[in-house]
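Two proteins, back to back. First:
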Amino acid sequence: MKRIKIGLAWQILIGLILGIIVGAVFYGNENVPKYLQPVGTIFMNMIKMIVVPIIISTLILGVAGQGDLKKLGKLGIKTIVYFEVITTFAIIIGIFVADFFHPGTGVNMDHLTKGDISSYVETSESVKSGGGFADTIVHIVPTNVIQAMSEGNMLAIIFFSVLFGLGVAAIGEKGKPVLSFFSGVADAMFWVTNTIMKFAPIGVFALISVTVSTFGIKSLVPLGKLAILVYAAMILFVVVVLGIVAKIFGLSVFKLIRILKDELLLAYSTSSSETVLPRIMMKMEKAGVPKDIVSFVIPTGYSFNLDGSTLYQAIAALFIAQMYGIDLSLGQQITLVLTLMVTSKGIAGVPGVSFVVLLSTLGAVGIPLEGLAFILGIDRILDMARTAVNVTGNSLASLVMAKSEGRLDKEKYDNYFENEKNSNLV
């Protein structure tokens, strides 16, 4: 009798649906978070455990393999400019849809459940006192690389790995054993990644059950208008903006989504880009992007290319203004765009990044910070969408950079699904 094989994407989807059902049935039951939260936390910890070794090993291999500081500098500047242009489009679309549909107008704030934003306020204040964007630039250079690794400071890890990779390339033959070591680390960590991913459906089930049982499906109704608008704007951004960018470079955003279907489902379910970082790097390499471009562009994008997050922040800022009856002038909206462009880069990587960005930004245009408490209850649902968009944007960026450098293996890209099918048959 032939066994029916269910793909990872379907397994994750089944886990997601079952988790929603369990959470809805046991809404308000304290036993769900008590027993299932540890399962979800273990899965997330397993993913976070492998991110740093993969980033370091693949980036050192990529940079040492290229070994040209001029080429790397050119790629770096081109990548940052691309990120800035795309995230600016995301902010503008967010402001446009919020201005057009007015999701916050007529919201009865008495019926909305307030949340506790004190921890986000503290984080925001510490970011501001730390110097914001300028402080982030300073901390790109770590005083202690081991500490940077333990804290998951992605920009500091990237800086060290690039410098170390250039050093390995510079010493020539002596560097070959080092490259062999990191090649072995990378291969071993990708095996570990694939093994951990087998537990993804269980992790997704646990995390979604806890979310739904805590907040309940009914709690989404009062803010349904905002949630629908955010999701619609995300789809518009992916299909139109990312779709046009892909088309210009002879690529297809829909093909990219098909390639990343497993990872997008997982990122959506867990609200964490980290869960899929190793897998999307591996898949983009299989899709024809050279290792050095993949290992530089995608981790850097995790700090500088948060398309979904910036789009959401623009909508949320205007939603809160509309709730309070504040009519922002064109000048104030331009200020909002410019402020978001800076703050969204300046505090990348801190917990609750989108909330902290908003707290750091709303004051610039006179919007009450207390309004954030009203959307805290559905933030997890909105976070799921913005995480999936962040993953799509960063994956496309690696393909675009490879194509712009004339280094995309078009045969691998064109025959991706056929190659994957053949490899699964072996």
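And the second protein:
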Amino acid sequence: MLIVRATKKLLRLTGPSTARDDDRGTTLLGPWYATVLFWRPRVALLVNESTLLPVLVPLAPASTLTSRIAEQVTTVLTAHHAPAAIINQERQHMQACQLGATTNRSVVGVMIEFARLAEIHHNADPSMDLTGLAVRLATTPCGPLYDRNVSPDRELAATLHAIAT
């Protein structure tokens, strides 16, 4: 079970919260946080709670967002050279998804910064696809990761190494 902690803006577009505040899900990487970027077309920005890995997903149609998250997370994990066994296991656990309200203000703060940076990168190079933009954002140093691996791409690599061993 995948738990996505969505902002109020996103919940207004996708439907009501169905997950409790204490739900953690069954995915290896844990819960994800999400918000909407009001681009044309609209995009959902997801950030993993433990690694702060960003993923961008087309929002339309908003009613089917939860069923499309696994595909895009898989694509981004593949772009980061995650082991196929871990990707497959994560994808399997993401087939069922519940939305809930945000509970971690630190992750929400990082998500806001990623939204600003994504806007800057998107305006500078509108031809960059969402996966390329997510990979670029993942190299951004993040305050909550300073005492560990500094950026989401490095934190992901360390987390995947720990899972694999």
